[in-house]
Amino acid sequence: NATPRDRLRIAIQKSGRLADPARALLASCGLSWRESRDRLFCYGETLPVDLLLVRDDDIPGLIADGVCDLGVVGRNVMTEQDGERRAAGKPTAYRELRALGFGDCRLALAVPEGWEWKSPRQLDGMRIATSYPALLSQWLADEGVSAEVVLLSGSVEIAPRLGQADAICDLVSSGATLAANQLKPVATLFESEAVLAGPVHEFDAARGELASMLLRRLDGALRIRH
Ligand code: ATP
Ligand code: ZN
Question: Which Enzyme Commission numbers does its entry carry (predicted)?
Answer without folding.
Answer: 2.4.2.17
